[in-house]
Amino acid sequence: MRLLKFGLLLGIGIVLLPASIGRAQTKPLTRTPIEHFIVLMQQNHSFDNYFGTYSGADGLPPGTCIPETLNEGGEPAGGCVRPYPIGDSSIADLDHSNSTFHAQFNRGAMDGFVHALNQLGQDGRISMGYYDDRELPYYWNLADEYVLFDRFFSSAAGGSIWNRMYLVAGVPGNADNRIPEGGFGDIPTIFDRLQEAGISWKFYVNNYDPTLNYRNLGSGGFLDPQVQWVPLLSFDRFIDDPALAQNIVPMEDYYRDLREGTLPAVSYMLALGATEHPLTGLEKGQLFVKNVLQALMQSSAWERSAFLLTYDDWGGWYDHVPPPQVDSFGYGFRVPALLVSPYARRGHVDSTTYDFTSILAFIEQNWDLAPLSERDARANSLEPAFDFSAPPRPARIIPWERQLESETPAPRLWVLRMSYGLAVALGLALSTAALFRQAVPERPETPGEAEP
């Protein structure tokens, strides 16, 4: 009877084994521990505008003063404007077209920021304003705990459409920074690569309106921000093919996917209504990111996830680092970028040269996908920002408020290590002393002697 049972079990195992092998082979494997990669692209800020005074980063150089006027030869003429904390000062939506980039870049002199905007009738002095931890407490707290990039350039020397196309396809899409009349045609995107490989993906859109795409621009015929900032809505196949269109979803689905354990492998996000575009509140954007991150940290996906925050272009604001000119489209100026992950290096400023195609490069390497273009094929992957030799760090809810200077600062890692070493040394000394006392008989107390 026992032999019969064993035979039956063995037969069932042989029958089921091929099916189980097939299932294992169809599950996409990652080259790193990251199984969920999330990208949020916000709007229109330069690195110096957000982190120019962040300690340890390549921020505003001392003595910076940008000329108000340049002569016809591009040489400084007249007075100059120093960087200043914006605080409650009024700002404007500064021009950030390709022509303004080149005027501000000024053949690498990086001194045309004020003059270029003045020439357009804007107050160019505003470009020299910067925020700090008083307006950006949450982002600066994230930088303290995770990775801040200070060599992250926008992919194109222009606005949203070019740069967001680089984010999804590794190419600008067209020559004039506009959506073509017939959409972007058959340009391959990272989502096509993922779909073909059977790897899950979604594009989460805050305040999503599924009726809006490049064929239906919105009220008054103006290009709706949703259409500008979700490039997939300008591809016929992502509008018409249900297998693709079903992956462009409302932001609410992100929180449901976290609760149900169905977060896809790759997620892109648009924080429509909270993009930090100038004239909208910085607090809104930070609150959006805080909600996204806290939900991720409290989910079962955290230990296998990475979240990248960046900005689509510089928005006309000053930045002092000349961007490498890799081709006729870019790079553009530096933009803020942060990496949050249990594997992100703690409190690290990464000075590797990156652009938006570095995001594609990491996805392609991690999930073994072919590059989309020459740009992402030679871009630096984000992998150096991770430390995969260490176990994943447990989730730590990042506070909203910035620590005041009068408060005791959080100890740095070297302080903790030194304190730990001193504690260990003290413990050994006390243990040795205790053993010595046990070995030597206690001296009888002399009458009248004070008690030790």
Index terms:
452 residues, disordered C terminus, two-stranded antiparallel ribbon, alpha/beta, 12% strand, disordered N terminus
Fold topology:
Layout lengths: L1 H25 L9 E7 L4 H5 L14 E5 L5 E6 L2 E2 L12 H8 L7 H7 L9 E2 L6 H9 L1 E3 L10 H10 L20 H7 L4 E5 L19 H5 L6 H5 L1 H4 L2 E3 L1 H9 L5 E5 L11 H16 L7 E7 L25 E4 L7 E3 L5 H11 L7 H5 L34 H27 L13
Parallel strand pairs: 1-9, 1-10, 4-5, 6-12, 7-8, 7-9
Antiparallel strand pairs: 2-3, 6-11, 10-11
Helix pairs in contact: 3-4, 6-13
What strand line-up does the widest sheet have?
Answer: 8-7-9-1-10-11-6-12
Portion of residues within helices: 25-40%
By secondary-structure content and strand pairing, the structural class works out as: alpha/beta
Tell me the Rg in angstroms: 28 Å
Uncertain stretches: 1-26, 405-452
Distance between the termini: 80 Å
Q: Helical segment tally?
A: 15
How are helices and strands ordered from N to C?
A: HEHEEEHHEHEHHEHHHEHEHEEEHHH
The tally of strands reads: 12
Give the integer mean of the pLDDT values: 86
Shape: globular
Q: Main β-sheet, in a few words?
A: 8 strands, mixed
Strand content: 5-15%
Plain-language structure description:
The chain is α/β, with parallel strands linked by helices and 452 residues long. The chain has helices spanning 2-26, 47-51, 98-105, 113-119, 137-145, 160-169, 190-196, 225-229, 236-240, 242-245, 252-260, 282-297, 356-366, 374-378, 413-439; strands at 36-42, 66-70, 76-81, 84-85, 129-130, 147-149, 201-205, 248-250, 266-270, 305-311, 337-340, 348-350. It is globular. The chain has an eight-stranded mixed sheet with strand order 8-7-9-1-10-11-6-12, with helices on both faces. Mean pLDDT is 86; it is low at 1-26 and 405-452.
